[in-house]
Amino acid sequence: MGNIKLVALDMDGTLFNSEGEISKKDREILKRATEAGVAVAVATGRAYTELPVEMLYEIGVHYAITGNGSGVYRLPNQECVLSDCLDNEVVYAILDEVGQLDVYYDVYIEGFVYCPKSVCHNIRKMDMPTAIHEHVERTRIVVDDLIEFIKESGKQVEKATVNFALLEDGTLLGRQETADILDRYPQVQYLCGGYHNWEFTKKGVTKGTGLRFLAERLGIKMNQTIACGDSENDLYMLKEAYHAVAMGNATKQIKEICNFITLSNEESGVAYAIEKLVFEE
């Protein structure tokens, strides 16, 4: 076996196939890797409470880099080992402006996701599959006034997302206006995490910083790491890892910066990459 000690996997479009499942082959090779002493983490834009924790833990995934790197948690007990949060005053200012647009938005706090009641009617209008609409409805905690809730909780925001409705002419309602708002706040950085949304974290916080933190915590060198991904929010993680693996279904931008291109998420591309880079090197 090679010198790889840590594998970080994006979830949607990477570890999960189009049905939101982990293939039998991927499960088998991940179990084999963890039994051989390789640490495996998921690295996702999702919050901890959106993860299939039992399923992941069963195949040896003991860490989750969540909220695009803003939170790192141990499975299965939701122990937070890193919380790299936004300045809440900045969050209040942004949400006050975004709240004037006809969009959906939510915030991630300590692994949970909260949204204001006033935007719930936009969930089914978001430009994404029905299964994702249902997932959002199932996992969000609805509060009357989101800003007041955050203030009263005394807790900090890990990440926030804004999603948009697709109009008949092909434009996304409020997307450019939201980008214009976010551009006015140098304390944050934002990117598209999927389905044309905007996700923002504290400036400098990415899946890449989450990966580096976890490697250091585990006493693993960066030249002993693999990262697999398919889209924009995986970019910084792939740049940090020694082996940057692009899924066969990855965007052109991602494929161009990776040093290994595997099969697609429909073809157990994670298993193929691990077999080649962990067990055959």
Protein model, in words:
The protein is of the alpha/beta class and 281 residues long. The protein is built from 10 helices and 14 strands. The protein has helices spanning 24-35, 53-58, 88-98, 130-139, 146-153, 175-183, 207-217, 235-240, 252-257, 269-279; strands at 6-9, 39-43, 61-66, 71-74, 79-83, 104-109, 112-116, 140-143, 159-163, 188-191, 198-202, 225-229, 243-246, 260-261. The strands form 2 sheets. Strands 5-4-3-2-1-12-13-14 form an 8-stranded mixed beta sheet, with helices on both faces. It has a 6-stranded mixed beta sheet with strand order 8-7-6-9-11-10. α2 (53-58) links the parallel β2 (39-43) and β3 (61-66). It is globular, with a radius of gyration of 18 Å.
Order of helices and strands: EHEHEEEHEEHEHEHEEHEHEHEH
The proportion of residues in beta strands is 15-25%
Low-confidence stretches: none
The oligomeric status of these chains comes to: single chain
Number of strands: 14
**What's the tally of helices?**
10
Structural class by helix and strand composition: alpha/beta
Please estimate the helix content.
25-40%
In short:
With 281 residues, this protein is of the alpha/beta class. The chain has 10 helices and 14 strands. α1 runs parallel beside α10 (269-279).
List descriptors.
281 residues, alpha/beta, eight-stranded mixed β-sheet, six-stranded mixed β-sheet, 10 helices, 14 strands
Ordered list of secondary-structure elements with their pairings:
Blueprint: E1 6-9, H1 24-35, E2 39-43, H2 53-58, E3 61-66, E4 71-74, E5 79-83, H3 88-98, E6 104-109, E7 112-116, H4 130-139, E8 140-143, H5 146-153, E9 159-163, H6 175-183, E10 188-191, E11 198-202, H7 207-217, E12 225-229, H8 235-240, E13 243-246, H9 252-257, E14 260-261, H10 269-279
Parallel strand pairs: 1-2, 1-12, 2-3, 7-8, 12-13, 13-14
Antiparallel strand pairs: 3-4, 4-5, 6-7, 6-9, 9-11, 10-11
